[in-house]
């Protein structure tokens, strides 16, 4: 762990302010309201990173929806996707014949989302789409369709608003780029 917990020593620069994030949630919420009109979607939040985004997003959606959560992990505490996705905590809801919308903080390699989409389809969901806040395309390892996203990001490690580094910094109200030296320090 970085020795100095002063946030200015950890964040290189702010990428998205609270207002930027709010605008993304409003735009996505309006689109989802149109696309899910007359449906009763099951919103599946990917724990833990997506909880901040999910709670803001659903309040911008005028849809009769239900919410459940699933914790799948491919990263552990590392920074690279292992590709080895496992279910840490499963849904309580039966997805058979449901219109499912997966909500995730960020898509990187795409392996986590692909695993979740395949699993929910296999369980009989009528439709499975995803809505991610950030779309990092540089390391994509498949051609997964990301139906909805807030913004594209470059190949940088971002934290805040649910996104974590070694489980820290989720509670920052903005999204910032982690200083590369912090990552190097932690890898020692
Ligand atoms: P994949 O590679 O399967 O992984 O698409 C998605 C998960 O990877 C984590 N991830 C990040 N987490 N800042 C983070 O805090 C990042 O820049 C970042 N890139 C990937 C995240 O947990 C996501 O759910
Ligand atoms: Mg995650």
Outline the structure in words:
This protein has 188 residues and is an alpha/beta fold. The protein has a single domain (17-155), classed as Rossmann fold (3-Layer(aba) Sandwich), CATH 3.40.50.2020. The chain is 24% helix and 29% strand. It is built from 4 helices and 9 strands; from the N terminus they run E-H-E-H-E-E-E-H-E-E-E-E-H. The protein has helices spanning 18-35, 51-58, 111-122, 180-187, and strands spanning 11-16, 42-46, 66-73, 86-89, 99-107, 127-136, 148-153, 158-159, 175-178. It has a 6-stranded mixed sheet with strand order 4-3-2-5-6-7, with helices on both faces. Strands 1-9-8 form a 3-stranded antiparallel sheet. Helix 1 packs across helix 2. The longest helix has 18 residues, at 18-35. The site of magnesium ion (MG) has 3 residues, from loops. Residues 49, 74-75, 81, 104-113, 136, 157-159, 163-164 line the site of xanthosine-5'-monophosphate.
């Amino acid at each position: 762990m970085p020795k100095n917990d002063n946030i200015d020593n950890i964040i290189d620069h702010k990428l998205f302010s609270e207002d930027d994030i709010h605008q993304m949630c409003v735009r996505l919420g309006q689109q989802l309201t149109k696309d899910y009109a007359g449906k009763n979607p099951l919103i599946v939040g990917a724990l833990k990173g997506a909880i901040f985004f999910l709670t803001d997003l659903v309040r911008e959606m005028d849809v009769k929806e239900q919410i459940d959560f699933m914790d799948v992990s491919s990263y552990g505490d590392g920074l690279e996707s292992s590709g080895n996705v496992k279910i840490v905590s499963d849904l309580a809801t039966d997805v058979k014949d449901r219109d499912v919308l997966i909500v995730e903080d960020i898509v990187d390699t795409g392996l986590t989302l692909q695993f979740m989409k395949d699993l929910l389809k296999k369980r009989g969901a009528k439709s499975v789409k995803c809505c991610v806040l950030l779309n990092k395309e540089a390391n994509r390892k498949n051609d997964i369709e990301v139906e909805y996203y807030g913004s594209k990001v470059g190949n940088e490690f971002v934290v805040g608003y649910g996104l974590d580094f070694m489980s820290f910094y989720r509670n920052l109200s903005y999204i910032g780029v982690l200083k590369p030296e912090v990552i190097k320090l932690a890898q020692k």
